[in-house]
Amino acid sequence: MKKTFKYILLPLAILVFSACNPLELEEIVDPNNPSLGSVANNATREQVQFVLTGLESAHRGYVTNISQAWNTFGREIWYLNASDPRFQTDWLGQAGRVPDRAYFGFGATGGGSWATPYQAIKQADVLINAANGSQLLSDAEKKAVSGFAKMIQGYQFMIPANFVYENGIRIDVKDPLNPGPFVKYEEALTYIKSVLDAANQDLSAAGTGNFPLRLTPGFTGFNTIDGLRKVNQAILARLNAYRKDWQGVLSALNGSFMDLAGNLNAGPAHPFSGPPDGFNPLFYVPNAAVNTIIVVHPSVLADATPGDTRVAKKFLQRTTPVLVTTDATPLTGTHQDARWASNTSPIPFIRNEELILLKAEAHANLNQTAEAVATINIIRNAAGIGNYTGETTTAALINEILYQRRYSLWAEPWGHRWIDARRYDKLSEIPTSFDKGTIFKQFPHPQAEVNWDLYKVR
């Protein structure tokens, strides 16, 4: 499907977030495409399709920023950029640099960690309204579209929530000119669960069979109602781990696409097909003579278990290391990302391997030792390092699971290690000796959010 994202965002009436308020929608009239009003009122199937495809494009908007930045915070990678040292000095917290409201790399609106997820959330609202207002979709088809949109919303809300953490996020953004207040992290997670539960209810009411509209190749194997419900439950399992609802993790996994004997890489993905679509932003030509590149953090290489097949599969040792000098210390990247075959390789956004690790984590926290060890061994044996033989206390098992997550989920577009270390109060265990930097716990709200609350019309 080479024209996967030809209609990026809203071709019918592109939604642009203003520099002052990332929740404010502004209609740009395009005489070649339908108006926003026509989509909201009795949209055709193709108009709803345009909005749906736009939502899939918006859904992947976070990938570049979070892959580079959050994985730097967790010291899974360095994003070396000789043209602008701030990607090293600021992102690594060198020389006393700390996040502020205009933190470099996120801009006044928070970039891919803040404004972009909210764009996707609002795009999903437009899709729900377009589907529900159409007389050409059956009730079951409307439920299918609504369920899909809410699933994406649940996923996207978790991004700003984990970015600002204890500072809280807005969950009431239905009215972009009058968004609700910030709510604490725990309240936000509870709300996100309600969104994912609503998605499951809508999909359940959509009947069976194929999804009624065209999904991109990223949902190949999941483009049925049942398949989407399994994806939704997988996302819920990740959320429930953040909520420390361990029985909820297991329940969600039981309804997901988890397969203990299946392909660890199975799962939905963000596709890239090249012009008029984009390229995989994480792909770098092997051994290319560049000074801007994602490289493997030295601690990841140093701490790897001998014989771990994940090392050879994911890390390519460069013929010529990349060296960037910063204010604090020179940084040398000896290995680059080897996960992507080409610049059109899809990027998974949740995989079977993560689900299996979530199962192990839930069992460990529920003191179900035998089940935890058995599940850990699935991952260890897949990596060629044999069964687990360490202590079986809860603390020891969690340490083992976090270690396996570090290599199984390395540098995925979610910043797993940064979030995992914070979840278990282990941020101090992330090494900074290689870059003489600082580990951040969370970020403040972008300055634009503060300005909006100060100056918005009441």
Question: What can you tell me about this protein's structure?
Answer:
With 458 residues, this protein is mainly alpha-helical. The protein has one domain (15-274, 348-428): Serine Threonine Protein Phosphatase 5, Tetratricopeptide repeat (Alpha Horseshoe). Helix content is 43%, strand content 9%. The protein has 16 helices and ten strands. The chain has a two-stranded antiparallel sheet. Strands 3-7 form a two-stranded antiparallel sheet. Strand 1 (15-17) and strand 2 (25-27) form a beta hairpin. Helix 2 (45-59) runs antiparallel to helix 5 and helix 7 packs antiparallel against helix 8 (225-242). It is globular. 49% of the residues are buried. Mean pLDDT is 91; it is low at 1-20 and 28-33.
In short:
The chain has 458 residues and is mainly alpha-helical.
Estimate the global geometry from the Cα principal axes.
Answer: globular
Strand content is 5-15%
The percent range for helix content is: 40-55%
Question: Total number of β-strand segments?
Answer: 10
What's the main sheet like?
2 strands, antiparallel
The secondary-structure element order is EEHHHEHHHEEHHHEEHHEEEHHHHH
Count of individual helical segments = 16
End-to-end separation in angstroms reads 47 Å
Strand order of the largest sheet: 1-2
State the name of the first-level CATH class. Mainly Alpha
Q: Enumerate the spans where pLDDT stays under 50 for 5 or more consecutive residues.
A: 1-20, 28-33
Question: Over all CA atoms, what is the radius of gyration?
Answer: 22 Å
